Here is the input.
Amino acid sequence: MSLNNIQLPASLHASMFKNSLIDLKFKPDSQILQEENKLEFLGGNERKIIFLTNDDQNKFISDSAIIFLNALLNACSLTLADIALVNFNQYKMVRYSELTDRLNARKVLIFGISADKLSLPFTIPFFQVQKFQEAVFLFCPSLEEVQRDKELKKQLWNCLQKIFNIKK
Here is the structure.
């Protein structure tokens, strides 16, 4: 009898192969890549509005900036549930197209970040509302700067009125 024709009882098979031949915890490369590229944001993104900040001290923004942001949202009849607050400092290599695609953004308000850092094909001055690829973009100084400066607040408010169709 050759070794190729040995018949083993089923009970012996079970004891020889205690571990599964398939790793149930294995994640394919595409799933790992998706998890590594997961975009964290604060808010519910219900109205597809991105508020993009750049804070190197906090996960999203400081406590005083969140209070100011809530006041802005209230003035626009919005809540945190309506927006996605993203800290660019956490995703320095992200492009505008990734942001708008992943979050299905219709409006993108960018605070303290230049257009070239987002790989946008144009630059615009602060407080100029710009439509581009089915989204509206607005660049502003950082939330902290706007919060401290009354004139910057006025300019931001004028833009928010245009973007969100707020009657004066």
Remarks:
- The chain has one domain: 41-163.
- Confidence is low (pLDDT under 50) at residues 26-36.
